Amino acid sequence: MKRIVYVNGNxxxxxxAKISVFDRGFLFADAIYEVTSVLEGKLIDFxxxxxxxxxxxxxxxxxxxxxxxxxxxxxxxxxxxxxxTEGCVYMQISRGVADRDFAYSLEVEPTLVLFTQAKSLIxxxxxxxGIKVIxxxxxxxxxxxxxxxxxxxxxxxxxMAIKAGADDAWLVQDGTVTEGTSNNAYIVKNxxxxxxxxxxxxxxxxxxxxxxxxAKSVQMEVEERTFTIDEVISADEAFITSATSFVTPxxxxxxxxxxxxxxxxxxxxxxxxxxxxxxxxxx
Length: 283
Ligand code: PDD
Hints:
About 30% of the residues lie in helices and about 30% in strands.
């Protein structure tokens, strides 16, 4: 089946959908995005994704050409047209089309693009086996709290990980872990969940917020602080979270097994709770 995508008010076959070569998203990475997961044909944490989208827009002086209610309708229409029951909806807003210049006019009309990706999220081999990560220096820009499409460095780190026989990279700045290439990072020590606190250094993950809330609600202890690669290696377990990986255990760092080298009980339990609660709250 040919995928239907959304571009500026139109639903088009993916090969008919076109963006101008002068779009600032293409030329300057002047664009932001959100990825919302879909389970049983429903959206997970949609409102939180919209809140973060609004924050990213505000930080960059961008605006969304349609209302939140309309965005929800577009998400649903795309899910329906593509018969998406499990996977994600990708949404991107760029500043729009303007002749190439570092300065931009405030009159530019934004470009809004959405598409779906069918993916098996619940039944995931990585969740069952756990993933292997390597550590890489974090060389990204200083505003990682804004969800921009400047994803070249994370993409290169992911490729370095694959080349090293691992699945992903954890980024390290001034000796402490910031986050994964496209996920938030956690360790567990003596049953305490440790993750970096929010700031400009990491994306404020929607899954992170949900997981920390669920963990606290079942009396799991949470500490938001920086941690080092040495702490990762001596941790009882580790895991990542994101809209598409939910909670996925990490079983190896830089070639060294974590804990007993299999998915840890805290990560496994949090994944179960996350899926259960997400299905209950999905819209
Ligand atoms: N990535 N940190 C980074 C750098 C990310 O790119 C992401 C998400 C996260 C987790 O955020 P959330 O829980 O809101 O998905 C953390 C998405 C999934 C992506 O780029 O595909």
